[in-house]
Amino acid sequence: MDNIAGKKPALIWATHLSVALLVFLWLFPTVGLFVSSFRTADQISGSGWWKALFPQVQNTMIRTAAPETQQQIDGKYVIAGNLFAEEGDKPGTISVWGTSSRAIDAYKAGETADLGEDGLLTVEENGDYRLVGETQYSGSRGERVFLTARTPPSFTLENYRTVLFSGKATDKMGKAFINTFTVTIPATVIPILIAAFAAYALAWMDFRGRAFLIAVIVGLLVVPLQLALIPLLSFHGAVVEWFVDLMGTPDPANARRFLTVGSLGQMLGFAPGDTINSKGYLGVWAAHTGFGLPLAIYLLRNYMVGLPKDIIENARVDGATDFQIFTKIILPLSFPALASFAIFQFLWTWNDLLVALVFLIDSSGETTVMTRQIVELLGTRGGNWEILATAAFVSISVPLAVFFFMQKYLVRGLLAGSVK
After folding, report:
1. Which of 3, 111, 224, 376 lies in disulfide reach of 107, CB 3.0 to 4.6 Å?
2. Which helix (H) or strand (E) holds 93?
3. Strand pairing partners for 79?
4. What whole-number distance in Å separates Cα of residue 134 and Cα of residue 307?
């Protein structure tokens, strides 16, 4: 009698513990990525992200102000300032310092070091320093000071400025962010529109071969994406060549370049010598649509079959056509399933790299998506963990927002058709 419906199982605590463990394992790296995106390279290399909210003790090297800032006071040349201000950091507390990397603890805060011909250097606990010399200082850089300081928590937005607004093509992700939206939104909307019509036909319209079509769609769910990439790319190229042949005469050296253009091609703005590339947004939209349709039709069909049959029959008795039933009854009632697939498709296309590499031109950078941009950052910024962390979090921020705002529809859509 322990498994009576409505009674909690004895091991419910194990279920709760497992869920809590999974949530922790998912949140731990995500929060770490978020915190690291606001830290500098020195902070990331010096301590873990979980220590970012606490004061830290770190060894660093800071230079005094340049000799051009020196002043002559009482016959001596003086350079004064604050070490933390020189670096633009928040004020800290210095415990020990030195003038050589081999002896960074040679002096305590407040003590004076004899630099020989370079004069006397005094460093206070709050970072104030005073360099006094008998002769005028020359050169373009100040004296090096190695110190051990306790600094308060500090965060910066400089990583986001570099990633989103940097002038370098390998760093700037603002363009890649827009390109990813350009790929993702149509690649999500188009399969939903097509699959909704197909699912309604397979669920509520009686025609010959319907069961066979359903079996084919279920079989397509197990076709690997990698298996279809090359045939699909070849087919796409063949369509381009057919289009060039239809609009004019193809160049014998390149079947995708116009040798001459017919009247229809001229109306569309083509000219002799124009080349139609088989790679671009149209190709990646078609690829994502083709790979997403089997799952979309399967989910939507299962949901629509579970809708009350009486509503459909009453609408037909009242004279409603199939199109009216579909647009005014089925679509509004199928919103949870539509939203469920939209989440799946959006997350897949947003995080996709393979299809983008195959169907998009990335050499110019005009169609580079975020996943491709992060790969380039790994090559150009492999040691800059702060830049990589920021770029990665920018990439996952949109999928996180989409998932959290629409997760209730995801659960309802996945359970559609499982219970009568």
Report:
1. 111
2. strand 93-98
3. 131
4. 93
In this structure, is the dihedral angle defined by the CA atoms of residues 356, 360, 364 and 365, taken in order, positive or negative? negative
Report the DSSP pairing between strands 120-123 and 248-251. Answer: unpaired
SS3 148: strand
Which three-class secondary structure state does DSSP give residue 128? strand
Q: Helical H runs in 221-363?
A: 225-247, 263-267, 281-305, 309-317, 322-325, 331-333, 335-350, 354-359
Structure tokens given for 126: 């709050």
pTM for the full model?
0.71
Consecutive sets of 10 residues in the chain, 420 residues long: mean pLDDT of each? 56 83 87 87 79 82 87 87 80 87 87 87 90 86 87 83 70 79 92 92 86 88 81 79 80 78 73 74 85 89 86 86 87 85 88 84 72 78 76 85 76 55
Given a contact cutoff of 8 angstroms between Cβ atoms, the answer to whether 73 and 106 are in contact is no
- pLDDT value of position 188: 93
Which is nearest to 186 in space by CA: 112, 284, 303?
284
Residue 213 CA to residue 1 CA, distance in Å, equals: 45
**pLDDT given for residue 185 in this prediction:** 93
Looking at residue 275, the DSSP 8-state letter turns out to be B
Check residue 5 and give its pLDDT: 54
Tell me, what's the pLDDT at 7?
Answer: 59
pLDDT of residue 420: 47
Q: What would the two tokens of residue 300 be?
A: 């939507």
E strand or H helix at 405, and its extent? helix 385-414
Tokens of 400: 């996180």
- pLDDT at 187 (0 to 100): 92
To the nearest 10 degrees (0 to 180), the angle between helices 335-350 and 385-414 is 160
Neighbours of 420 (CB within 10 A): 5
**SS3 call for 121:** strand
CA distances from residue 352 to 227, 318, 369 in whole angstroms, order as listed? 16, 46, 9
The structure tokens listed for 392 are: 């990665």
Burial state string for 346-366 with b = 16 or more CB within 10 A and e = fewer than 16 = bbbbbebeebbebbbebeebe
The predicted structure's pLDDT at residue 4 = 56
Cα 70 to its chain centre, rounded Å, is 48
Query: What DSSP string describes 52-90?
Result: TTS-EEEEEEEE---GGG-EEETTEEEEEEEHHHHHTPP
Which is it for the CA torsion 336, 341, 343, 346, positive or negative?
Answer: negative
